[in-house]
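CORE FACILITY INTAKE
Project code: CF-77B
Contact: R.S. (postdoc)
Sample description: multi-component assembly, three entities in total
Requested service: structural model of the whole complex
Turnaround: standard
Below are the sequence entries exactly as provided by the requester. Do not edit them.
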Amino acid sequence: MKRISRRIVLLGSAAAATASLVPTAVTRVLAQGTSGDPIVIGHQCELTGWDSATGFWRDKAATGLVDWLNANGGIAGRPVKLVTVDTKSDVDTGVNQLRHLLIQEKVDFVIGAEISSIALASNTIANENRTLYMTMSSSEATTGKGAAVPYQFRMTTNSAATAAGAAQKYVESIGKRWATFFADIKWGQSERDWWQKGVAAAGGEVGRAIALPVDAPDLLPFIAQIDRSADGIFIPVLNALQAIQLLRSSGYDQQVVLAGLSFSLFDYRELGAMGDGVFGIETAPVALKDSASGEMAEIYKALGIDDEGIHTASGKAAGTSMIMGIAQSLGFVKANVEASGWKVKDDTAALIRHAETVETYARGPLFPLGNVIVRPQDHQAFMDIYLLKIASGTVGKYAVAPKESTIYPAEVDLTKG
Amino acid sequence: MSFGAFRALNDVSLDVGHGEIRAIIGPNGAGKTTFVNIVSGIFKPTSGRVTLEGRDITTLSPQRRARLGLARTFQITSLFKGMTVSEHLQLAVRDADADGETRRELLEQMGLATFADREVDTLSHGDQRILEMAMAMVLKPKFLLLDEPTAGMSIAETDRMIRLIIERLRGRIGVIIIEHDMNVVTQTSDKVTVLAAGAVAASGLPQDVLRDPHVKEIYLGSAANH
Amino acid sequence: MRDRVGIVTALGVLTVLCAIAPLVGEFWSGVLARCVSWMFLAISFSLAYSYANIPSVAQATVFGAGAYAAVWATSLVGGNMILIMTAGAAAGALIALVFGALLLKMSHSGAAIGTIISAVTFSMLGNAAVAYTGGTDGLPMPAQAFHLLGMPFAVGPNIGMLLLGSAVLAALLVAFWLFSGTRTWRVVRAVQQNAMRAQVLGYNAAGYRLAVFAVSGCVAGLGGALYALISRHVAIEVVSLSMSLKSILWAAVGGVTSIYGGPIGVLAVQLASELLLRWTVRVDLIIGLMLIAVALWMPRGVMGLRRPRSSQQSQ
């Protein structure tokens, strides 16, 4: 149970300052073009099925950013080839598709699925195949005891980290008394528990948590049980859009906080006037003005997203947390391939050993919103968390929870194995 | 016996002795098949008792009643697709399969021996009805319920069935026979009970009952209604 | 009464699968191994539907019970694969007995609805009982030194598991084939065709139906255990209604009235899905159209294509 100490973070920041020179140099060299065999990255993505709303953004991000990489020197001067497969949001298909990537496509690296069951079933297989698996699951269990494996890293956030970082801010600004309305599945239960811990640590309290059974046809009877005297309501449910609409139409005018990364599940504009007073916990804001990042502007441009965060081709508001997860995963692969001298798949073990020594990834083209620290013990990344608020039909930055506030104890130490 | 608010049978009491063949007649909807279903255990009566040789079998399941020696046939031929005549008799004897000779004899006597290995779907309607009878008789039951045994049969097939009933059942076991064909009733039955609207309208010797003006009226009334 | 063509076809299919496994490579061997575990599920549906007269939409729940039992058993008894498979089969039979006892009190359509309710209820329970099932995340198969009859055995989606699964399934099918010539099986068929008629012949129709349903549960549970050993991870999805619907589709394509059709149905649907996935994300749509075509032009599935009144027609 090791935490990243303040000293390590400070050291990491110093190292990052030095490392930040590298991407600039690399970019300059690589701009001259790519050569050699392509580095093949497999993408195990939810293109269809119940999680396809978030899969849409991961697919767009992976495709667009690989194109961007190839236009900007590739990875270590080599072109990057992306092979995307559809999990159909289903474990068996997801695992089969991963095996297809590993065995038939012989990919060098994999960006994994977002659905935790697929991710958990897959990381063991990738580990056996000695292929680096960049999980996109936001279930903290994926890097926890019994599930963490050496060949897996997570460059996005998770339930434990978002709750730890966001709870304090929201308790301070919204109030101490909270109600939770959660999906009665592993993800919802995990969000509920971490939120409760975070609120308690911030001096607040969570009253009775209301469970929403999976496949419940009608949310109203469950919503009616929510404590009306609570200052705020935390809702880790999959059908957040419907839940918010019912909350508002049932007379609940409290501030509502959606669970981490919920804004990738639906377009916030669908809430209309009911969206006012709804907060989110994401790894990136939506409008460019809220990030004030040239790198983010470059990514938006590469993906066809306008300054307000609207994807031009589809007209949808960008699922920025998904985009950030993909960008940082590609950034991780690029940084470590180049720094470890990785050439072929057999070098991946050495790449991992190297990666475990890199504590900070400096702000750069694929880390557009600032430094990201990676905990070597469980291969979990920590980044600033953006607390977003919908007001007057627009989602904007409300606050930022610094990455240090999102750190929670690691359950494993992969560096010892 | 009631189905919801509808009372299908009301105060119907029948005592059929050993060796007696009792015909139950009556217009459609009189409750004849309901009566057979109650006796065979398919329906549970809302009140009343069913006894077999003095033993109360009211609460017993159909299979328990069958094992105590109560056999029945169905109004609609109820044979098993894809099985042969011989296999039907094997089913009917349950675990008493050792008595293969009895089965062969029975098939001979019933005129089914040449069809023993044929699937029942290929038999004529009359032979299928005879096979139903054979299945009911093969275990030498103590009591037999025949629900319209000649339904759908030709005149020749009906005569064959009448002969079977007279030769193989009369005086041997108790039989209740539900019938519409008065020729069958008069030739086979010792007594006749008439059911109308779920109640006993008349009972007695066949010649007396069938001459009863009240019974005629029941039938004519029924015919007029149809 | 024994379906010679059926057993020969099914064993032929399994033999071909095992024979081609070394040629098609690691990936396809894994795909086929998983297909073999699903064949048990398809067969269990056929048994429940065609011989226990229970149109069960809860077979995946029973299959899942076997899979979870295998994971729990591995934690308790280690890597003894015979014990693990036995645990799966026993769990499946037990759940089916409980379901069956309830379902037999319902009408035919009532039983179908009852199985849907059972499937949804168990899915919800599984989601809520995270400590035991891992919920939506699922449970990994504990890392153990697995062994079969004293020999070390590598579990996972591999040729070894394909061979094992096929051998167990072949043994099961042969046992069924032998049993289908017995008098007891004749009674099962009689009960299935006309329970009331069988009752007045002295047979306990409900007892026979319950026994057949328990056997179908045992088959599904055994398949679930094999699935757990192949996948090494069991998620609540496995017990979901959509998994049960898949089993119905497999059985329908193979021919729901013949248990020998299940293996063919699984292969036809799953291999078509797997191949189509390489070309399009509209796989379910295409499979759906394929199934409509089967329903229209092959209502009795692949096994129904044989001469309708041959001596091998039915078990």
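Facility notes:
- The first strand of chain C starts at residue 139 and ends at 140.
- DSSP finds twelve helices and four strands in chain C.
Invoice: internal transfer
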